[in-house]
Design a protein that fits this description.
Largest sheet: 2 strands, antiparallel
Distance between the termini: 87 Å
Radius of gyration: 24 Å
Number of strands: 2
Order of helices and strands: HEHHHHHHHHEHHHHHHHH
Low-confidence stretches: 1-6
Shape: flat
Strand content: under 5%
Strand order of the largest sheet: 1-2
Helix content: 55-70%
Mean pLDDT: 91
Length: 428
């Protein structure tokens, strides 16, 4: 008597599309929402929303200095659902910056960047750069006071780079100041070049995730496989619908900012960079430009690129914070970094005036080396103390260093965003 085989399931077109992104069966542990929080899918959906709303906005927007601002005003006032579409685009762009950042953190702290996943970590950093570049180029397009002076302030940071900084800033601006060529170049980058690059790297990213076996999971001898449909796909659909509901509801009541038309002769006080670059602007207030605009950014870039390739011990891929001890060290390092960064900035603003006290020394020492050592030595000693206290390995120590870097930047960002008033002075 022959063996009966159950007929193979027939998938719909939508299900077949989902199976291009997922295998038919996955480890049941990967289905848990707190494994990834759906951040990768959220980023992909936000990009789709931005692409669709961006295409619609192109029909109304005119990328010239003379007409850009009026075209936005006309879009808000005289185009059916024009304001809603612009609000949706604006909110989605900001959400994408936040979601991409959280996705990078999730991948890093779940130890999903090592071995065969190291290459994908590099591509993830590239995509994070593309997200920031897209938001940065789109920031200028309304050509109002907020956009004009935010981009002006940030491009001026490049001028502090020794030797070629001024030339680099002029290249980005297409001149000494923002002008019609700047607007047109930013428009073409924002609507053409950057989206195509993002699609390419996202496709490569998804392919490498599939190649690596999906979400990084802790090693386990026995695993249980479950069908990806409906176990995972239904959750992804629910997250997508919830995100759409939140964005649509917020876009109906929130108005994307639009100040007066850009006036190169009237600078607002204070003038601040785009919110995600405010940490860099805050750092520039306290450290020599050679450190804040060149040495530290280059060091941090090389550090994050090299992180997967350090010589680690006791590595637990897929385990949050690598170990319970690592979790304790990360939390304590984050708290210390926030408090210490906040306190040091307050002291530098009100009491520590090394530029005056060491006036006879070169400025790169009094406002560069000294503040740098004033921060790194106490932080280094604290991490050393924490590693001894919690008996952590080299892996957790590197994670604590990364945490200090990230929290320090976020602290500076929040201070600049919320606590800097006229003249960029602290409000307390």
């Amino acid at each position: 008597m022959g063996i009966k085989h159950s007929p193979e399931r027939t998938y719909s077109s939508i299900e077949k599309l989902a199976l291009h992104l997922h295998p038919k069966q996955i480890d049941e542990r990967a289905v848990a929402f707190n494994r990834t929080f759906g951040l990768g899918g959220i980023c992909a959906l936000l990009f789709v929303i931005l692409a669709l709303t961006g295409i619609i906005l192109r029909f109304s927007y005119i990328p010239t200095v003379e007409q850009a601002y009026d075209s936005i005003v006309n879009l808000n006032s005289h185009t059916i659902f024009g304001g809603f579409i612009r609000n949706l685009h604006h909110l989605s762009a900001n959400f994408l910056v936040i979601a991409s950042f959280l996705h990078v953190l999730r991948v890093y702290y779940s130890q999903a960047i090592f071995k065969e996943r190291a290459e994908n970590w590099i591509y993830g950093l590239v995509m994070m750069f593309l997200v920031l570049a897209s938001s940065f180029t789109g920031y200028l397009l309304p050509w109002d006071q907020l956009a004009y002076w935010a981009i002006t302030i940030f491009t001026q940071i490049f001028e502090y780079i020794p030797l070629f900084g001024h030339s680099l800033a002029n290249f980005i601006r297409s001149g000494e100041t923002l002008n019609s060529n700047t607007l047109l170049n930013f428009y073409n980058l924002h609507t053409g070049v950057l989206p195509l690059l993002f699609v390419f790297f996202v496709s490569l990213h998804f392919w490498l995730v599939r190649k690596a076996g999906g979400v990084a999971l802790p090693e386990q001898k026995e695993t249980q496989k479950v069908p990806v449909i409906p176990n995972l796909v239904v959750k992804e659909i629910m997250v997508a619908l919830l995100l759409l509901a939140v964005l649509f509801f917020a876009s109906a009541f929130y108005s994307a900012p639009l100040l007066e038309q850009a006036n190169p002769n009237l600078s607002p006080n204070p003038s601040k960079a785009p919110w995600y670059f405010l940490g860099a602007q805050e750092l520039l207030l306290h450290m020599h430009p050679a450190f804040s605009a060149v040495i530290l950014p280059v060091y941090l870039l090389l550090f994050f690129i090299a992180v997967p390739y350090f010589n680690y011990e006791n590595l637990n891929t897929g385990v949050w914070f690598n170990s319970p001890e690592g979790k304790k060290l990360v939390i304590h390092s984050a708290i210390f970094s926030f408090l210490f960064t906040f306190g040091l900035i307050y002291l530098l603003d009100h009491f520590l005036h090394f530029d005056v006290w060491l006036g006879s020394s070169p400025s790169w020492i009094s406002t560069g080396v000294v503040p740098f050592l004033l921060y790194t030595i106490p932080v280094g000693l604290y991490i050393l103390y924490g590693s001894k206290k919690f008996k952590t390995h080299h892996t957790e120590v590197v994670m604590a260093i990364t945490t200090v870097i990230i929290v320090s930047y976020l602290t500076m960002l929040l201070i600049s965003l919320l606590l800097r008033g006229e003249g960029m002075l602290l409000l307390f």
